[in-house]
Every structure is written in structure tokens, then in C-alpha cells.
Amino acid sequence: MTPTASRPIRLSIYSMPSHLPVVRAAVEKACRQAGFDEEAAASVVLSVDEALTNIIRHAYKGADDQQIDVELELLGPRGCEGLLVRLRDYGDQVDPSQIKPRDLDDVRPGGLGVHIMKECMDTVRFTPAKGGGTLLTMIKRISVKQEAGK
Fold it and tell me: Which range among 59-63, 102-106, 121-125 shows the weakest confidence by mean pLDDT?
């Protein structure tokens, strides 16, 4: 069954790095169903992986027994206009204005997850979740270039 905009794919995982490959595979499959080319699909998968890593590292401070909800929704009447990704954690709420990419002139390992997400996705929005935690909403739309290559 192919998911449609009215029937998103929903996963709930623990904050364990070993669960990330399962989410990456689901995101890659959803990107293919939406019609993304290989490069665009890889950028969405990378963005989701970075976001989940940040949730584990920052919202849950490395704890591996916390819940993360993942929702993937194909956009458009035929599911081929793009992909909406929602990641919801239940950690400490963070002021969205404090979530900023690190200055790229600050050369050192790590700390580029938010920058990667904002470069790869069309929309990246952090909002406090009802009942605690944070809801990250990211959208990637099919580009005109990708549609021409089909």
C-alpha cells in the first residue's frame, strides 16, 4: 500500500543510535515513493539522521530509553509533491530561537546538524510540543529540476 498525504507513516523508536538505520531506511523509501532523485533523497535522509542524533544528544543527553516519534507524510494529491517529516521528542523544551546553526568559520568536528538541515530542507521549524518536548517539522519539495529528470 502506498502512503498518501492523508495516511502518514508513523514510527516510534527509543533514543538508541542502533534504531537510526531503521528510520533512515523508512525515510529513503518514502523519498523514493515521493519521486525524489538519489541526491535529494540522500539530503533528506541526512537531515533526518542529523535531527535524530541531536535529539538523542541534546534533548535526552544520551539516554537510550526515551521515546522519539517519527512521522513521514507524502505531500500532494498523488503524494508526489514532496515529503513532510515530523520528529517529536519528550525531553526538556528548548526555546526555538536558541536553536541556531554554528558559525561555519568555527572549524571543529560536530555541531553542524542544524546547518545541514537548513541547507538540505525547504522548511525547518522547531516548536514547543504540547505536554513538553519539541516538535521538529521539516519539508522537502520536489524541485522543478527533479521533475524534469523523471
Answer: 102-106
| 3-state DSSP of 58-81 | HHCCCCCCCEEEEEEEEECCCCCC
d(CA 90, CA 92): 7
Cα separation of 13 and 62, whole Å? 14
Q: How far is CA 96 from CA 3, 5, 111, 125, 142, in A?
A: 30, 27, 17, 8, 27
In eight-state DSSP terms, residue 7 is S
**Structural domains of the chain sorted by starting position, each given as residue range(s) with its CATH number in brackets:** 9-148 (3.30.565.10)
Q: Above 80 in pLDDT, residue 65? A: yes
**Alpha carbon separation from 94 to 8, 22, 97 (Å, rounded):** 26, 27, 8
pTM recorded for the entire structure: 0.84
Please write the tens of the pLDDT for every residue from 22-52. Answer: 999 999 999 999 999 999 999 999 999 999 9
pLDDT tens across 101-111, in order?
555 555 444 55
